[in-house]
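Entry 14. Two folds queued back to back today. First construct below, sequence then structure tokens.
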Amino acid sequence: MVTSVLADRHPGELHIFRNYNPPSLKREPAYSTSTTFKSLTIPQEQLVWRAARSSGAAPTYFRPMGRFLDGGLLANNPTLRHSAMTEIHQFNKSLKAEGREMDVKKLGIVVSLGTGKPPQEVVTSVDVFRPSNPLELAKTFVGAKELGKMLVDCCTDSDGCAVDRARAWCEMIDTIYQRLSPQLSQEVMLDEVSNKVLVNMLWATLMYLFEKREVLQSLAKMLQ
């Protein structure tokens, strides 16, 4: 399963590209609609390269793939909140509703792989207001910039609350949960090309893997 965002509607809607038929359990639509949208391609006719291209269509970095944008816009950590674990739960619930309890497979282990956590930084101002002089205009500009970055980071955060909720869900259903995401020394942009920054990121990741070697060995044994 691969996540993407249907951007031909507002609000945008999470879409999951699957190599299996989706759960047949009927669910209430998230939003009512006053128009008719083009039908989606069924899993058996979906091309893998189109799904991959749609999932990675990050705005300002890559052009949209038709009506699809990067799945990270709505599910930057797809473990629980929008897709993977919810999909498994709904799929099993659908099987039970159809009397196919023997086909239900219990979720045994969840391994969530992150791309690194940037360090927290001091925010100087998030005050946005109508300025009455040049000095206030400068303050408003700084506040708007910081506030915009904060809103984007909050919407696409893959750690923090997302990890806490996934771990709590797994504890409630007696499932092993392990999150792996190294702490980075600086924020690394998606289009970073500096060798120094990239090497520092690689080194931080290698050190993290060394520190977590016992956890990784344990996970490997469980997966085997």
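Second construct, same run, same settings:
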Amino acid sequence: MADKVLASVRTKFVERISNELIKQLLDDLLEDVVLNEGEKDAILEENKSRADKARCLIDTVKKKGDEASRKLIAHLQSRDLMLYSTLGLSSVQPL
């Protein structure tokens, strides 16, 4: 469910997220063991533009399933409530 919600907000997420928020979310997901150090580094180093980093982040988390997607959504809510609301994510139940 949450992975499908992420898929539905992908375009807006990519358009609106900041570089700083991407880094914060990567740190949060690393701490939650959703991502490992290599995945985090790959997202940051292999993608030059902010939009490409955002695409890679959301796609990587989506592929890991519903629980990983819910964690990303929960971290987005705590880090940037305005973006969370703009994306319409309040309908998803966090962990």
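Quick look at the second one. The chain has one domain: 2-86. The mean pLDDT is 93.
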